């Protein structure tokens, strides 16, 4: 069954996600990042300028299959219902959206990143309830008392 982890109280979501993706890439894990177009655009730019020695290779799910087959990180736009791209792997799904991502149950792991805003927390609580209702065991990582560096 899919493992679902929530990372709560993340002060700078994009920086945190960049660090998570760098760590996953170094561990040879493959990640699909699902979210709305605007969030993915910001992440795409952040990954290009994050840090020069630790560039995280990535592509869009709509890119040619050769790119997506080889890329350790794939950005999948949840705003585009016609994007029915078949993912070349189902290891880790990182959700930047406000709803449960389509097809989450086909992944080994799902990571939900939750910022500091009350709106973000309220939406995450709803997703938490939905996962729990479906029988998933949930793991909570509360970063409020920790440094937000994975």
Characterization of the model:
By secondary structure, the protein is α/β, with parallel strands linked by helices. It has a single domain (10-145), classed as Rossmann fold, CATH 3.40.50.10110. Helices cover 33% and strands 21% of the residues. It has 4 helices and 7 strands. The chain has helices at residues 13-26, 37-49, 65-70, 118-133, and strands spanning 3-8, 31-35, 59-60, 73-77, 92-95, 109-113, 138-142. It has a 7-stranded parallel beta sheet with strand order 3-4-2-5-6-1-7, with helices on both faces. Strand 3 (59-60), helix 3 (65-70) and strand 4 form a beta-alpha-beta unit. Helix 1 (13-26) packs across helix 2. The relative contact order is 0.27.
TL;DR?
The chain is of the alpha/beta class and 150 residues long. The protein has helices spanning 13-26, 37-49, 65-70, 118-133, and strands at 3-8, 31-35, 59-60, 73-77, 92-95, 109-113, 138-142. Helix content is 33%, strand content 21%.
């Amino acid at each position: 069954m899919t493992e679902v982890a929530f990372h709560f109280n993340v002060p700078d979501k994009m920086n945190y996600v960049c660090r998570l993706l760098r760590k996953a890439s170094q561990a040879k894990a493959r990640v699909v990042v699902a979210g709305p177009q605007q969030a993915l655009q910001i992440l795409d730019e952040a990954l290009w300028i994050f840090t020069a020695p630790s560039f995280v290779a990535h592509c869009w799910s709509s890119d040619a299959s050769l790119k997506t087959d080889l890329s350790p990180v794939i950005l999948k736009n949840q705003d585009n219902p016609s994007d029915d791209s078949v993912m070349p792997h189902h290891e880790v799904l990182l959700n930047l959206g406000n709803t449960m991502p389509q097809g989450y149950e086909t992944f080994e792991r799902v990571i939900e990143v939750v910022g500091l805003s009350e709106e973000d927390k309220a939406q995450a609580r709803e997703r938490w309830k939905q996962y729990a209702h479906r029988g998933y065991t949930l793991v909570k990582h509360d970063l409020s008392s920790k440094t937000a560096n994975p």
